[in-house]
Design a protein that fits this description.
By secondary structure, the protein is mainly alpha-helical. The protein has one domain: Up-down Bundle (Four Helix Bundle (Hemerythrin (Met), subunit A)), CATH 1.20.120. It is built from five helices and no strands. Helix 1 runs antiparallel to helix 2, helix 2 runs parallel beside helix 5 and helix 4 packs antiparallel against helix 5.
């Protein structure tokens, strides 16, 4: 049975709402999980439709966002731009030791991930 990537988004919401250890650690983790929920759900949907194939490497993140952005001003194109911004947030949360307002960044990241997942076509 395949992992349900939506569970990462639910975990992000829970971590942001009910922090473990510290609010900042929970918010940083929430940002990361929100991104990976959106990334993997997008990748799976496009993969199922034969529009994209994972290389299973670090280049996948940019390639997927770039592919979806090519759809221009459509809903699908907006998903690419939002996914790119969410990836940027994830990198900040995972690698930047001093980020401003991590709680607001977590909230924004969760909203972006929800927008992405809501706009994906069903499999």
């Amino acid at each position: 049975m395949s992992f349900n990537w939506s569970d990462y988004l639910a975990l992000a919401v829970q971590l942001h709402t009910v922090p473990l250890i510290s609010q900042e650690a929970s918010d940083r983790t929430a940002i990361s999980r929100a991104y990976y929920a959106a990334f993997n759900l997008t990748a799976d949907r496009l993969g199922t439709k034969g529009e994209w194939r994972r290389a299973h490497g670090p280049q996948d993140h940019k390639e997927l966002a770039d592919l979806v952005k090519r759809y221009g001003r459509t809903t699908k194109g907006r998903v690419g731009h939002t996914l790119e911004r969410l990836y940027y947030n994830r990198c900040k949360a995972d690698y930047d030791g001093d980020i401003e307002q991590p709680s607001k960044l977590a909230e924004a990241s969760i909203l972006m991930a929800k927008e992405i997942t809501a706009s994906l076509p069903p499999i």
